[in-house]
Amino acid sequence: MSSIISRSLSFFPRSTMSTSQSKLHIAIVGVGLVGSELINQILSIPQPTSPFSLISLSSSTRTLFNPSTPIQPNFDWKFALKASPNSADLRALTTQLQQLVAENKRVAIVDNTSSDDVAALYPTWLRAGFNVITPNKKAFSGELELWQDIIKASKESGAKFLNESTVGAGLPIINTLKELVASGDKVIKIEGVFSGTMSYIFNEFSTGKPDGPAFSSVVSIAREKGYTEPHPADDLNGFDVARKLTILSRTISAFSHTSTTTALPTLQSFKSVQTASLIPPALEGIPTGDEFISRLPEFDESFAKLRTEASEEGDVLRFVGVVDVQGGVVKAGLEKYPTTHPFATSLGGSDNIMLFHTERYSPRPLIIQGAGAGAAVTAMGVLGDLLKLV
Ligand SMILES: NC(=O)C1=CN([C@@H]2O[C@H](COP(=O)(O)OP(=O)(O)OC[C@H]3O[C@@H](n4cnc5c(N)ncnc54)[C@H](OP(=O)(O)O)[C@@H]3O)[C@@H](O)[C@H]2O)C=CC1
Ligand SMILES: N[C@@H](CC=O)C(=O)O
Ligand code: NA
C-alpha cells in the first residue's frame, strides 16, 4: 500500500499540497469495513505534504464535522464519532459543505455505504460542486434516470464522480475502460469473473474433484474475510455481478466518442441483465445476513451434486459475466469450464479476472486479474480516485 501512495504522491509538486486552503477537503459517509480502512490509508499519508484534509465522518447515526481542525493520525475517531452529539443528517452536511465551496475550498464526499438513499444524493452533491468518490454500486447500476442525472449534473458543474472500486475493487477496470473507449478503441466484448465472493466460493468449492468443503462453509468464510456485500444474498443472487456489468455497459456508452455501441442494450437497471441466481427459492427474501447464513447448510447437498456433475465432465464451476457489445447481450450465471481453462487454473482467493476484447486488443484480449474484494484493495481504489482529483 505504502509504495502505491508514495508513487502517487510523487506526481504532485510538494508546493501545491501543503496549504490548508489548497487541500482537498474530504467528508466520508460510511465507516464500516471499507470506510475504516480508507481513513487509515488517508491518515497514513505523511501529514505535512498530504493533499487531503479529512474534515467530516458520518456513520448511519452520528456525524463529526470540523473543517478547522481536520482529523489527525493519532485521533481516536471511532470513539469521537460514537460520542458525537450530532446525529447523522446528510442534508445538514450538504449545507455545511456548500459553505466551504463558497469559500473556494475543494470538496470531495466519499460514500462508503451500500445505501440507495445516499446514492440518490449524488446529483445534488455534484450540482453543489462536490466531487463524489465511491465504491457503492447502487447509483450507477440502479434506475437509468439516476445515472443520466449524475452524468448531467457532473457536466453542468464540472464536479467529478469517480467509481473505480465499484468494479473489481482496486483493480484498474473503470479507468482502463474509460481510456480505451475515450481514445477511440471499440469494445467487442468484456467477459470474466466479476465477483470476489463468487470467485472465492467456487475456487474453494469446485476444484475439479468430485468432493470438497460444504458450500455453506465457504460462503461463511467469504463473509468473515469481508468479501461479501453486507447481506451475502446480494452476492449469491448474482445481482452484485449484474450491477458491475451494468456499470461497465453504461461506462462504455457514456465515455465512447464513437457510435459503435448501438447493439448494446440500454439497461433500465441491473435488473435488465439476464442473471441466474444461486439462491434456493426457500431462502429468497430472508431479511438478515445472519439468518441467511444459518439456513444455507440445508442446501449443501444440492450444491454438492452440481460439483460432482461438473467433475464427472472434467469441469469446474465458475460464476461469470459477459458484456457482449457486438452481440447486444449482457448476462451473468454459473458456467462449467474445463480444469485446464484459465478461470480454473489461474484464480485464487477473491481474484477477479476480466478480459477486454477490443478492436485494438485483438485477437488476444487485454487481461486484468487480481484480488477483487476485501477492505484493503477496495479502499486503495477509493484513495486512488481521490488522488486523481488533486
Ligand atoms: N467489501 C468489499 O470487498 C467491497 C465493497 N464494496 C462496496 O463498498 C461499500 C462498503 O462496503 P463495506 O465497507 O464492506 O460494508 P459495511 O457494511 O462494512 O459498511 C457500510 C457502512 O455504511 C454505513 N451506512 C449505511 N447507511 C448509512 C447512511 N445513511 N449514512 C452513513 N453511513 C451509513 C453503515 O453504518 P452503521 O454501521 O452505522 O450502520 C456501515 O458501517 C459497499 O457499497 C460495497 O458494495 C466495493 C468493492 C469491494
Ligand atoms: N461483494 C463484492 C464486493 C466487491 O464489489 C464481491 O464479492 O465482489
Ligand atoms: Na476497480
UniProtKB/TrEMBL annotation:
GO terms for molecular function: homoserine dehydrogenase activity; NADP binding. Its EC number is 1.1.1.3. Residues 30-162 form the Aspartate/homoserine dehydrogenase NAD-binding domain. The keyword Oxidoreductase applies. Pfam families: Homoserine_dh, NAD_binding_3. NADP(+) binds at G30, V31, G32, L33, V34, G35. Its cofactor is a metal cation. The keyword Oxidoreductase applies. It comes from the Eukaryota. NADPH binds at T113, K137. Keywords: Amino-acid biosynthesis, Methionine biosynthesis, NADP, Oxidoreductase, Threonine biosynthesis. Residues 172-387 form the Homoserine dehydrogenase catalytic domain. It catalyses: L-homoserine + NADP(+) = L-aspartate 4-semialdehyde + NADPH + H(+). The active site is at K244. One of its GO terms (biological process) is methionine biosynthetic process. Gene3D superfamilies: Dihydrodipicolinate Reductase, domain 2, NAD(P)-binding Rossmann-like Domain. Pathway: Amino-acid biosynthesis; L-methionine biosynthesis via de novo pathway; L-homoserine from L-aspartate: step 3/3; Amino-acid biosynthesis; L-threonine biosynthesis; L-threonine from L-aspartate: step 3/5. L-homoserine binds at E229. InterPro entries: Asp/hSer_DH_NAD-bd (IPR005106), Bifunc_Aspkin/hSer_DH (IPR011147), HDH_cat (IPR001342), HDH_short (IPR022697), NAD(P)-bd_dom_sf (IPR036291). Catalyzes the conversion of L-aspartate-beta-semialdehyde (L-Asa) to L-homoserine (L-Hse), the third step in the biosynthesis of amino acids that derive from aspartate (the aspartate family of amino acids), including methioinine and threonine, the latter of which is a precursor to isoleucine; production of homoserine leads to a branch-point in the pathway as it can either be O-phosphorylated for processing to threonine, or O-acylated for processing to methionine. Belongs to the homoserine dehydrogenase family. This is Homoserine dehydrogenase. It comes from Leucocoprinus leucothites.
